[in-house]
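Hi L.,

As promised, GMP synthase (Glutamine-hydrolysing):
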Amino acid sequence: MKPFLLLATRVDDTVAEAEFAAFARSGGLGPGELERVRLERDPLPDLDLDAYSGIVLGGSPYCTSDPEEEKSDAQRRVEVELHGLLEVVVGRDLPFLGACYGIGTLGVHQGGTVDRTYGEPVGTVPVTLTAAGRDDPVFAALPATFDAYVGHKEALHGVPPGAVLLAGSAPCPVQAFRVGHNVYATQFHPELDAGGFVERCAVYRDEGYFDPAEFDDLAARLRTTSAPFAPLVWRRFVQRYARD
């Protein structure tokens, strides 16, 4: 099988390694079936996109909606490189899944607006499929409403022009969309379980996602939650696009 490619921007090594492991585990991918480029550290190489079954862009400490003057040189470089990559991905309708930071990146590329209107606190949220989501080959395996892990300061203000809305929630109307036939994005995290989310929150406890003084209570609540259906998005994506 041709491997899938994870485009990562996690500055913290602990989170970066945990994210890679989570995408491999939840996607049912074995050794050599998921490769990674850490864009926060290294420039995007000249990729042979035909060498991969598909691409996944994970979450990030970067915020797309931050003023340009507040972004680091690395973030500005990453945004330029991802825009160029998406020109090819969308133009060729290649298999792509953007998760959390990935939905904003793809959304902006497609003419959408990312702002702080629909940020969501850390936790689980009920996500409901649209009629298009219920008919979509990747999302159709999910229940009409399912819980998913979220925690983001920014989100798309609306569906990008020409995109198909696949899922939404009361606090965040754009939880998933599709461009063309094969380019997907989710606001929620399709790779996480409760333990992984607690570990991630521990690293980001001082990054403004929640009151650091409430971390212990938040972690205790998260450990009682589950979101067993959300990872089906990533698993079905892998199953649909895996190729020799």
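The mean pLDDT is 97.

Thanks again for sending the construct details.

K.
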